[in-house]
Amino acid sequence: xxxxxxxxxxxxxxxxxxxxxxxxxxxxxxxxxxxxxxxxxxxxxxxxxxxxxxxxxxxxxxxxxxxxxxxxxxxxxxxxxxxxxxxxxxx
Length: 91
Fold this sequence. Notes:
By secondary structure, the protein is mainly α.
């Protein structure tokens, strides 16, 4: 599960890759620069969904809902892997 601190790290990495300042990202996302700073530096205790969605959208990112895996893959998961890879994941 992704927490707010990890999300902030992803946001900072993407922002710098796009050569955006915190202020530029804040303007694009319609949030304050302080919000971006707090998120990127793990100081945001809470951040609403709308703000997160705006920030991610401004970075060209999206939120996806997927079932979480609960540990090891099942036999069905392994059988769905590409036939050429087989069970040996080291290839």
